[in-house]
Sequence to fold (212 residues):
Amino acid sequence: MLIIGIAGGTGSGKTTVVKKIIESLPKGEVTVIPQDSYYNDNAHIPLEERLKMNYDEPASIEWTLLCKHLADLRAGKKVERPCYDFITCSRLAETVTLPPRDVVVVEGILVLTDKPLRDMMDVKVFVDADADERLIRVIERDCIERGRTPQMVIDRYRETLKPMHELYIEPSKRYADLIVPQGGNNNVAIMLLTDYIRSLLSTGCNHTKVRQ
Fold:
């Protein structure tokens, strides 16, 4: 099993990169684990307070559960991945069953910030994009999918997204084995990544981990 970590700023194009990796490999060969599914369960906190919490720092993620699920998948076990509701900022009661597969992709803005998780990865990728492009994508996504107004998104960008990106996400780029500039539009970099993944699968060899 290959465990691939794909990080990058909010709106950088990580989802597009993951989609292209899935499309390049045989059907049913990839399991995707979104970091966002592992936000801490804050259902006990009033909604008004939950809406004000910082969800762009490492402390917002239940890393121990994510690492446990990865270890279980590597051991050949199915796992029950949590589901997260971005409208209510809380976990849902239902879960999603994830089977162990040849490739497991862990995707999220902070996945390279946690050392125990990083050490489980065979390939570490950072998807890079200009700040203005990321902001445009975040506005489009949050207004359509998360019921926010453009002004709400801009305010959140100034108060939380931008400072957290500079504090945690951008520095995690140094742990990447591969940096994909121009986000999901960089077809050459994505092709090189998918070719590398296929080569590892065909030889049955894992990428040599670099402990950082």
